[in-house]
Amino acid sequence: MDERHLSRRRLLGTVGATGAAGVALGATGGALVAHAQDGEPATELASVGATRVPFHGRRQSGITTPQQAYAHLAAFDLKPGTGRRQAAALMRRWSRTAAELMAGREPEGDSGVARDAGPCSLSVTFGFGRSFFGRTGLKAQLPRQLAPLPEFSMDQLDRDRSEGDLWVQIGAMDGLVAFHALRVLQRQAAGYAGLRWQMSGFHRSPGATAQPMTGRNLMGQVDGTNNPKPEEKDFDRRIFVPSDGQPSWMAQGSYAVFRRIHMLLDDWEKKPLAAQERVIGRRKSDGAPLSGGEEDTEVDLDKRVDGELVIAANAHVRVTAPESNGGAAMLRRSFSYHDGFRSDGSPDAGLLFVAWQADPLKGFVPVQRKLDRGDALSPFIRHEASGLFAVPGGAASGEYVGQALLEG
């Protein structure tokens, strides 16, 4: 038997599809993983290890995929002399490798770092930055939706940790599996592209709460309640480029806005609980709006008590509400980060904000402009890095991500 099929992720169990979430789960009790030596009894993977996300499909994974506990975001710049042909070779190789890793198999030349783990819901998502098109002679295919984002008053952007020719988002339920995927892709980029920046994030782990809930950010606030939901009739229109959209190579793709948002936690934590809740417009305990109800209760922006608005005029939930922004909406799929402490002793921590939309000029930009004009949360955050990436649709079996662009 081929040696690479005797390595870290030999799944002896079958994997069945779950359907709506787009995630495949191992057979009852978890898939079986063989030990390193023949003859030893196989052990069962826990469900978190056996869970598999498909790579091939009309859309890329990592957009509507259930959020994983560990993430890496990275941008690469093409090396001088690397053009369209070399970029196509890299994307072909990356796509093949991502498909292997996400299926729980070991790609050729693998280091075996995570050989005893299952797929662990690994997802790998690829995107192209604005600069990619000039470097590869594809300016004619540059989408209008990749127009540079406006400058905002709260921006303190580090240009070296912003943008990039190529963008990779990696998510997994196991930290080692996530790191391994990042390392493999970085090594395979050698000769074609160099790392521009990389950031690591995290989210709630499965089973960490008594019942499934929207995630919390490092301010302790429930974050993401008003996200568009796949069952809503206009979800696809808001988040994905239609099959007949332009440019045609972006069909069933989406645009990702990335922002590294540093939270001034020392200042935030000095605020009394009631003041924090007024800033957000929601209860900290359960995410319910201050206007009443439970987390998923629609916010009543008109409710008053003794003539005063219950949801303050500059409360974050009011400023970001679709009805406050002409219906603008985006799918937020962010991760928290912590990179140690700064020279003043304050935590270097915050949010790796990732928002998906069919058109950032109709999604992120109008909402951020509104926030820039008056959001009670603004004194407690700083935007330190930024990026905008075109994420094309998924690849069919035998194809690679971006093939319609690079070979069209």
Descriptive report:
The protein is of the alpha+beta class and 408 residues long. The strands form 4 sheets. Strands 5, 6, 7, 8, 9, 12, 13, 14 and 15 form a 9-stranded antiparallel sheet that branches. Strands 1-2 form a two-stranded antiparallel sheet. It starts with 14 loop residues before the first strand and ends with a helix. It is globular and about 65 Å long. It has 2 domains: 203 residues, Alpha-Beta Plaits, CATH 3.30.70.1030; 123 residues, no CATH class.
Overall structural class, as computed from helix and strand content, comes to alpha+beta
Cα Rg: 22 Å
CATH topology of the largest domain: the name is: Alpha-Beta Plaits
Q: What is the succession of H and E elements?
A: EEEEHEHEHEHEHEHHEEHEEEHEH
CATH superfamily of the largest domain: Apc35880, domain 1
Give helix % range.
Answer: 10-25%
The major sheet is characterized as: 9 strands, antiparallel
Mean pLDDT: 89
Number of domains: 2
Strand content: 15-25%
Discrete helix count? 10
Per CATH, which architecture of the largest domain?
2-Layer Sandwich
Count of DSSP E strands? 15
* Low-pLDDT sequence parts: 1-38
Q: Which CATH top level class of the largest domain fits?
A: Alpha Beta
> What separation lies between the terminal Cα atoms?
39 Å
The shape is: globular
Q: Any key phrases for this structure?
A:
408 residues, Alpha-Beta Plaits, 2 domains, two-stranded antiparallel sheet, 10 helices, 20% helix, 22% strand, globular
